[in-house]
Amino acid sequence: MNSKDFRCPQAGKLVPITGGHWAFVPAPLPAELGYDTALTLALSRADAALSELAGLGRVLPNPHLLIAPYIRREAVLSSRIEGTRSSLSDILRDEAGAEVPKGQAADLREVRNYVTALEYGIQRLKSLPLSLRLVRELHARLMKGVRGAHAAAGEFRCAQNWIGPTGSTLATAAYVPPPPQEMQAALGEWEKFIHQHDAMPDLVQCALLHEQFEAIHPFLDGNGRVGRLLITLFLMERARLPQPLLYLSAYIEEHRRDYYELLQRVRTDCDWNAWLRFFLAGVETTAKDAVLRARRLTDLREKIRARFVGKSKVQALLDQLFINPYISVARAEKILGVSNPTARQAVVMLEKAGVLKEVSGRAWGKLYLAGAILEAVQS
User: Fold this and answer.
1) Which region, left, alpha or beta, applies to residue 21 given φ > 0 means left and ψ of -120 to 50 means alpha?
2) Which of 117, 124, 300, 310 is most deeply packed, by most CB within 10 A?
3) Among residues 30, 11, 63, which one has the least CA distance to residue 322?
4) How far apart are CA 370 and CA 306, in angstroms?
5) Cα distances (Å, whole numbers) of residue 99 to 77, 94, 317, 348, 374
6) Residue 15 in 3-state DSSP?
7) From the centroid of its chain, how far is CA 135?
8) For position 156, what pLDDT does the model report?
9) Percentage of the chain lying above the pLDDT 70 cut
10) How far apart are CA 313 and CA 165, in angstroms?
11) pLDDT in tens, 258-314
C-alpha cells in the first residue's frame, strides 16, 4: 500500500505497523458530503425505485413463495464474488435432496451458510437492532464449517490483515485495514453511526456504512459477505423494505472493478460522491429488476394455478415449486402430508401438463424440475 496515494486526511489517517508498513484508519462517520445535482438525481431515482419495490412487497399474495428463491439467488451471487462456483440450480437441487458432486460440497456449504445467516438476521432484527453483536452472530453462522472457519468465526480479528491478489503481502497489498486496537475504536464509531436516525437519507447512510465496514475489515475472512448482508438488514430495520427483496450482489459482481476502485477512492481522495452515485445506481437498477422479477413470478404462479382449479393438492405442490422448483415424489409426499401414491399422482399430473420435467434420468428416486419457474427466478 503506497502511503502517497492517501491524499485526503478527512477520509482517515495512516498509522505505522510492523515492518515499516502502513495501515489506514477511517475517520468516524458521517463524512462531509456535497449534494450536487448528479448525486441528488441519483438519490431521487434510487429512492423512487426502492419505494416501488417496498410497495409491491406489501401486497404480494404470499411473499414467502417469492422471497425464498430471491434469498438463494443472492446467496449464490454474493458467494460467487468470493470465489465459489455454485449456481442457483446447484443449491436448489441440493436442498431438494439431490446428490451433490464431491467437488461442489464445499462451495454449496458456503452458499447454504449465507442463506442461514441472512434468514437468521431477518428474524434477529425482531429482538436485536443492527449492532456489533448482531454482526458477530451473522459472521459465526456464515463461517460455520467452511474454509476460513478457523479464522475466529464470530469474533473480530486480533491480527493484522490486508487486501490484495492471492499471494500478496503487506508490502504489495492494495489496501491495509486498521490494526486491531484502532479497529476496535473504529468499530465503536461505526456502531454509533448505525444508530443515528433522521440525520441523512437512509440510502446515503446505508452506502456510508457499507463503505466504512469494508474499510475497517473487522474479520479475517467473510467481510464482503457480511457487508452485503448488512445492506438488506439495514433497509429492513429502517422499514424501507417490508420483505428482503433487494440485493446488490448481482450489480456488484457485474461492476466488480468499479466497486473496488470507488471504495478505494473514498479512502485516498475523499471521493464520496462517486461512491454514493455508484451505490445509488445499484439500488435503482436492482430494485427495478426485483419489481419485474416479482411481477413475472406472480403472474406465472397465477397462470399455472388457473390450470388446476379445484385440485387443492396440486396447487399446494405448485406453491412449493416457487420456493424450490426441484421436486421428487418423496419430497412431495412430505410437503403434502399424504401417502406416496397420492403424492406421485400430483407429480405425474404436473408432469403431464408440462409443468414438471424429469431431469435425473433415473428409474428410481426421480427428480423433476419446473423449468419455467427456475428460468423466471434466475433470468
Assistant:
1) beta
2) 117
3) 63
4) 16
5) 22, 7, 22, 22, 19
6) strand
7) 14
8) 96
9) 98
10) 53
11) 999 999 999 999 999 999 999 999 999 999 999 998 888 889 999 999 999 999 899
- pTM for the whole thing? 0.92
Q: Crossing angle for the helix pair 312-323 and 329-336, nearest 10 degrees?
A: 110
* Residue 257 pLDDT grade (very low, low, confident, very high; cuts 50, 70, 90): very high
Domains of the chain: 3-295 (1.10.3290.10), 309-378 (1.10.10.10)
Strand order in the sheet with 326-327: 326-327, 368-369, 357-358
Q: CA quadruple 280, 59, 119, 302: dihedral positive or negative?
A: negative
The tens digit of pLDDT for each residue in 114-163 reads 999 999 999 999 999 999 999 999 999 999 987 655 668 999 999 999 99
109-112: long-range contacts (C-beta < 8 A, 24 or more apart)?
109/145, 109/146, 110/79, 110/82, 110/84, 110/86, 110/146, 110/147, 111/72, 111/75, 111/76, 111/79, 111/84, 111/86, 112/75
Cell of 145: 464449517
Helix axis angle, 202-216 relative to 256-269, nearest 10°?
Answer: 80
Is 334 a residue whose pLDDT tops 70?
yes
Beta-strand pair 368-369/357-358:
antiparallel
Note whether 283 and 248 are within 8 A (CB). Answer: yes
Task: Tell me which amino acid residue 198 is.
Answer: D
Do the Cβ atoms of 276 and 207 come closer than 8 Å? yes
